């Protein structure tokens, strides 16, 4: 009806345009007038029909509004019934079944998209009518000789009537749009009411037994239901008829044929796939042939090879599910579809665990352990998958009529199968958490394994006691969490293998370079690098010590991803744990709009606060690495700026996280701001040094007078900075001792930073010579020694001066420049050896004392250097 009205409006608009094109400015004779009147009558009749349709459509909209309002009242009554009877659900399973049947009779959620499209069409139609009404002024004008005819008055009356009809239609469309808007609001209210009822039902029914506990009559009931399902409801006949319809329907038949084609291609490609695995296995571990691309190809090909059978499985489930005339087929199709992802995971795991697959060849896992973990693989395929199909099918068939018997028996058997599988994986030594040392033998891994091993037994006990739905949902979420966890574990080992390959290549290149240098020194010729690739010993590298910091970063990122995944996965059950909001721990008062309101802190609020603090701590611990890896390394920042950004970000996140967590337990900013202010004043006097060091630390982070790795001299201490913390800075001196200096000292005291803007430092050596030695020769020898020393920089160039004569001894000053602080002692040692060799070659003697070194690079206290006997 709506489409017909829309088309009628369009035709009316087109006819008006056609009439306007065909019309003339004046009507001069009666034949033209009669034709114009006929067209006007036809158009007015169309407008009357549209008006009748508009009234009928408006009536249907109002009726739909009344129907929606009735449904809203029904849903609200159901919610009230749940609230009243919820506390009695644990005492009667019959009451629970009655309420569940009442929930099944709830209306479906209305869809807002049709209403939006209808409102848009109504506005288009209103615009067409408005354009037609505006075009009435363009109708032909009657000539003077026709004005007195009776048909002329009829012509004018029809034009006025058309205008009135158009105005009425435009007004009616306004009313229709208004009523459609009201209907859309009612639909939104109904949707919200249904969501509220579903949340309440989930909250009340999740922890309530949905079936009777197992008794002595359970086996007898199970046999009766099996016989009834097999023979009384024509299960085989329904499946046969559903299969016939599948083969006759084009769409499901196309999907089935396409899936069979995929399976056929997979069988044909299996030989090439195995050959690729064998070929790649021969290259893995060889430094000149191994590459990370091999691992990626193995993963991609394994995923593709594992896909056809699950696709066929899902296509079969889809074909059965669309046969609404056969409830058994629909329920079975739902179960088959639910088992398809599980089947894909099992097949992927089998491909990864093959002889030359990902786990053994590329990750280096023990072949015996992998075989132990896959011991019950056939059990998983031929037992677990059919049991999942049975459980999910009877959970959907005929309002769970057989869930208490057949469904529960299949679920218990499924749990026993999971017990065998989980124990085999545990005995294989598969880690659930890898610590900093790269070991899976840690407390958290043991706790996770305890939960995983206990889950099937707890599910069996819950199902026997009647909590079947609760056990199914919780066990399903737990198994999905395990799949996600193992997927992240595989990703961790993939990244670890990439780092391992990169490390081997670096070590191989270094070994090859050292070999080449040795051969060049020994033979003086350059060997062929191609022959060296076959003879160089491949370095053996310990995986546990490769890039420990990078692996820690990867571990932290994966832990954050795992935590977020678990939150998203279990977030659907938030209403099931709403009972914690009823457990009141303590009370607190808050002021809202000037009124003091009493609030209670519940167990749920405490759990949320703990979760917020956990996420905050993880972010604070891993934020520097995350920022460095994801953002800071791609920015052109000065040295130390990234560290300052990371540190300040940690403080901000910690403050925000603490405020959010405290707000959940009743400690908000409005209550503690005066306490913090008072503590700030008190601590400012009592712990002013601590606060001074804290503020100094912030100044150091932003001004950067010192950075990690700088060589500094403060007071009588010289060393390298290794840590910049909130209160103090750690310096490691030349004796490898760690000295903790307060931040305040670096701001208020004199500080020498040897590598702040330039790491080049000057070394001043005082070299003596006898009074009768040739001064020019000594200067030439000192300059030659400076040029031969590999640690002396040529820019700035070395300088030699005859600076003094004391007690019959010439004193020469040699000024040299080293590239960094680490070269100072090496430079002194090398230059001293070269000077001594030059003195011996030219028969020069050193007066007593033979050599004096003035470390003027550390600062000179007087204008004249002293030459003390016995100094070095």
Structure characterization notes:
Residues 647-688 form the Mechanosensitive ion channel transmembrane helices 2/3 domain. Residues 30-57 form a coiled coil. With 872 residues, the chain is an alpha+beta fold. It has 26 helices and twelve strands. Residues 1-8, 10-24, 524-546 and 850-872 have low confidence and may be disordered. The longest helix is centred in the first third of the chain and has 56 residues, at 30-85. It has helices at residues 2-22, 30-85, 93-104, 113-134, 150-205, 218-232, 235-248, 250-283, 292-305, 308-321, 327-352, 358-362, 367-373, 377-396, 403-427, 443-464, 468-523, 529-535, 548-570, 603-630, 641-664, 669-686, 688-703, 743-748, 775-788, 824-841, and strands at residues 26-27, 141-142, 584-592, 595-602, 711-714, 717-724, 728-733, 738-742, 751-753, 761-770, 799-806, 809-818. Strands 8-7-6-5-9 form a five-stranded antiparallel β-sheet. The chain has a three-stranded antiparallel β-sheet with strand order 10-12-11. Helix 10 runs antiparallel to helix 11 (327-352). The chain folds into five domains: 2-205; 218-506, no CATH class; 583-667, no CATH class; 697-753, SH3 type barrels, CATH 2.30.30; 761-858, 2-Layer Sandwich (Alpha-Beta Plaits).
Provide mean pLDDT, rounded.
Answer: 76
Spans with pLDDT under 50 lasting ≥5 residues? 1-8, 10-24, 524-546, 850-872
How many separate domains?
A: 5
Question: In percent, how much strand structure appears in the residues?
Answer: 5-15%
Question: How do the helices and strands line up, and which of them pair or pack?
Answer:
Elements: H1 2-22, E1 26-27, H2 30-85, H3 93-104, H4 113-134, E2 141-142, H5 150-205, H6 218-232, H7 235-248, H8 250-283, H9 292-305, H10 308-321, H11 327-352, H12 358-362, H13 367-373, H14 377-396, H15 403-427, H16 443-464, H17 468-523, H18 529-535, H19 548-570, E3 584-592, E4 595-602, H20 603-630, H21 641-664, H22 669-686, H23 688-703, E5 711-714, E6 717-724, E7 728-733, E8 738-742, H24 743-748, E9 751-753, E10 761-770, H25 775-788, E11 799-806, E12 809-818, H26 824-841
Parallel strand pairs: 1-2
Antiparallel strand pairs: 3-4, 5-6, 5-9, 6-7, 7-8, 10-12, 11-12
Helix pairs in contact: 1-2, 1-4, 2-3, 2-5, 4-5, 8-9, 8-10, 10-11, 11-14, 13-15, 14-15, 15-16, 16-17, 17-19, 19-20, 20-21, 25-26
């Amino acid at each position: 009806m709506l489409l017909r009205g829309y088309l009628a409006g369009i035709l009316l608009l087109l006819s008006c345009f056609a009439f306007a094109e065909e019309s003339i400015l004046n009507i001069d004779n009666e034949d033209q007038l009669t034709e114009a009147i006929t067209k006007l009558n036809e158009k007015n009749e169309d407008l009357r029909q549209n008006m009748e349709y508009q009234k009928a459509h408006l009536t249907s909209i109002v009726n739909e509004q009344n129907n929606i309002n009735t449904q809203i009242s029904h849903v609200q009554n159901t919610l009230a019934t749940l609230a009243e009877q919820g506390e009695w659900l644990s005492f009667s399973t019959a009451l629970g079944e009655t309420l569940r049947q009442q929930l099944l009779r709830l209306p479906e959620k209305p869809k807002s998209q049709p209403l939006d499209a209808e409102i848009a069409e109504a506005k288009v139609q209103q615009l067409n009518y408005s354009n037609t009404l505006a075009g009435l002024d363009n109708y032909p004008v009657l000539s003077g000789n026709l004005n007195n005819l009776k048909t002329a008055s009829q012509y004018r009356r029809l034009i006025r009537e058309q205008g009135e009809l158009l105005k009425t239609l435009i007004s009616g469309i306004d009313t229709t749009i208004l009523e459609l808007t009201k209907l859309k609001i009612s639909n939104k209210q109904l949707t919200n009411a249904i969501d509220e009822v579903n949340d309440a039902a989930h909250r009340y029914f999740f922890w309530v037994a949905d079936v009777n506990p197992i008794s002595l009559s359970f086996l007898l009931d199970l046999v009766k239901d099996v016989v009834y399902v097999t023979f009384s409801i024509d299960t085989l006949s329904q499946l046969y008829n559903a299969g016939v319809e599948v083969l006759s329907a084009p769409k499901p038949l196309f999907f089935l044929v396409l899936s069979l084609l995929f399976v056929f291609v997979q069988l044909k490609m299996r030989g090439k796939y195995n050959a690729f695995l064998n070929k790649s296995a021969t290259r893995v571990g060889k430094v000149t042939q191994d590459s990370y691309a091999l691992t990626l190809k193995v993963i991609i090909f394994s995923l593709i090879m594992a896909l056809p059978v699950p696709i066929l499985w899902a296509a079969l489930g889809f074909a059965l599910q669309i046969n609404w005339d056969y409830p058994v087929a629909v329920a079975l199709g739902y179960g088959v579809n639910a088992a398809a992802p599980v089947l894909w995971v099992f097949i992927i795991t089998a491909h990864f665990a093959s002889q030359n697959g990902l786990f053994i060849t590329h990750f280096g896992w023990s072949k015996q352990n992998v075989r132990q973990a896959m011991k019950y693989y056939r059990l998983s395929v031929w037992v677990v998958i059919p049991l999942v199909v049975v459980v999910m099918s009877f959970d959907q068939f005929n309002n769970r009529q057989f869930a208490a018997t057949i469904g529960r028996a299949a679920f218990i058997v499924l749990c026993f199968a999971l017990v065998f599988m989980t124990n085999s994986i545990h005995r294989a030594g598969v880690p659930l958490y890898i610590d900093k040392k790269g070991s899976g033998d840690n407390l958290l891994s043991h706790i996770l394994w305890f939960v995983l091993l206990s889950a099937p037994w707890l599910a069996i006990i819950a199902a026997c006691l009647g909590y079947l739905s609760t056990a199914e949902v919780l066990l399903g979420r737990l198994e999905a969490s395990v799949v996600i966890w193992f997927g992240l574990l595989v990703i961790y080992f993939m990244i670890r293998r990439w780092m391992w390959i990169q490390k081997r290549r670096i070590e191989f290149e270094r070994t090859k370079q050292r070999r080449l240098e040795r051969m060049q020194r020994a033979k003086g010729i350059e060997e062929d690098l191609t022959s060296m690739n076959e003879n160089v010993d491949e370095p053996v590298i310990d995986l546990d010590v490769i890039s420990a910091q990078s692996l820690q970063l990867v571990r932290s990122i994966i832990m954050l991803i795992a935590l977020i995944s678990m939150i998203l996965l279990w977030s659907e059950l938030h209403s099931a744990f709403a009972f914690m909001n009823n457990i009141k721990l303590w009370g607190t008062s808050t002021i809202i709009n000037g009124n003091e309101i009493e609030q209670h802190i519940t167990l749920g609020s405490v759990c949320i606060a703990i979760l917020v603090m956990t996420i905050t701590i993880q972010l604070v611990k891993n934020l520097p690495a995350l920022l460095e890896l994801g953002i800071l390394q791609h920015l052109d920042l000065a040295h130390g700026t990234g560290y300052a950004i990371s540190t300040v970000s940690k403080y901000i996140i910690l403050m925000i996280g603490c405020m959010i967590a405290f707000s959940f337990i009743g400690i908000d900013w409005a209550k503690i701001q005066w306490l913090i202010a008072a503590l700030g004043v008190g601590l400012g006097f009592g712990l002013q040094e601590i606060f001074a060091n804290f503020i100094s630390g912030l100044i150091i982070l932003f001004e950067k007078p010192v950075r990690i790795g700088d060589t500094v001299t403060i007071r009588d201490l010289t060393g390298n900075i290794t840590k910049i913390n909130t209160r103090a800075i750690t310096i490691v001196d030349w004796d490898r001792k760690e000295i903790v200096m307060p931040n305040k000292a670096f701001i208020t005291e004199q500080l020498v930073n040897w590598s702040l803007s330039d790491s080049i430092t000057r070394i001043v050596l005082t070299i003596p010579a006898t009074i009768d030695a040739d001064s020019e020769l000594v200067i030439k020898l000192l300059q030659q020694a400076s040029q031969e020393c590999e640690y002396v920089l040529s820019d700035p160039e070395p300088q030699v001066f005859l600076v003094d004569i004391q007690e019959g001894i010439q004193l020469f000053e040699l000024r040299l420049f080293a590239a960094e602080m680490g070269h100072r002692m090496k430079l002194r040692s090398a230059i001293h050896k070269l000077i001594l060799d030059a003195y011996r070659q030219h028969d020069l003697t050193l007066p007593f004392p033979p050599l004096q070194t003035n470390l003027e690079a550390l600062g000179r206290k007087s204008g004249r250097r002293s030459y003390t006997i016995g100094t070095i």
